[in-house]
């Protein structure tokens, strides 16, 4: 049987809604859609690029706790209420994913809170031990 465990970030949303920041299932790490909230302070910037930076910090911490890193990401999804906000994030995203080139999708959609300008979800495969 494969290992399955939850990785929690401490976000109040995890308990209120009933989900984990990430789930490790064998070699796979599925990181939930992650917004620009700093979950330690429950604050969020008004700037989309700063929100994307915070998303990546939270995702990076979840991947590390799961025994993976950004180099292991095979799939990324970007969700934004305003597609015009996506291009300003490209340099940051290219810096994170440019060498590994995961499969990627950008979706224009509503997010749970009007302050949220971007949500990022990734799937990674942990390296063999």
SSE layout and pairing:
Blueprint: E1 4-7, H1 12-18, E2 22-25, E3 28-35, H2 48-65, E4 73-80, H3 90-97, E5 103-108, E6 119-125
Parallel strand pairs: 4-5
Antiparallel strand pairs: 1-2, 2-3, 3-6, 4-6
Structural notes for this entry:
With 129 residues, the protein is an alpha+beta fold. It is built from 3 helices and 6 strands; from the N terminus they run βαββαβαββ. A hairpin with a 2-residue loop joins β2 (22-25) and β3 (28-35). The longest helix has 18 residues, at 48-65. The chain is globular and about 40 Å long. 31% of the residues are buried.
Features:
globular; 3 helices; single chain; 6 strands; 26% helix; six-stranded mixed β-sheet; 129 residues; alpha+beta; 29% strand
Structural class: alpha+beta
Multimerization status: single chain
β-strand amount:
25-35%
What is the count of DSSP helices, taking H or I runs of 4+ residues?
Answer: 3
Distance between the termini: 17 Å
> Numbering strands along the chain, what is their spatial order in the largest sheet?
1-2-3-6-4-5
Number of strands: 6
Q: What is the compact description of this entry?
A:
With 129 residues, this protein is of the alpha+beta class. 26% of the residues lie in helices and 29% in strands. A hairpin with a 2-residue loop joins strand 2 (22-25) and strand 3 (28-35).
């Amino acid at each position: 049987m494969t290992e399955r465990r939850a990785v929690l970030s401490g976000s109040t949303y995890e308990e209120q809604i009933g989900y984990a920041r990430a789930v490790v299932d064998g070699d796979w790490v599925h990181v939930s859609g992650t917004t620009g909230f700093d979950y330690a302070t429950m604050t969020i910037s008004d700037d989309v690029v700063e929100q994307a930076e915070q998303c990546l910090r939270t995702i990076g911490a979840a991947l590390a706790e799961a025994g993976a890193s950004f180099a292991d990401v095979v799939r990324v999804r970007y969700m934004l209420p305003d597609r015009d906000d996506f291009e300003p994030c490209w340099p940051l995203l290219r810096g994170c994913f440019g060498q590994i080139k995961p499969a990627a999708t950008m979706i224009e959609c509503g997010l749970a809170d009007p302050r949220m300008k971007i949500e990022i979800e990734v799937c990674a495969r942990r390296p063999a031990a």
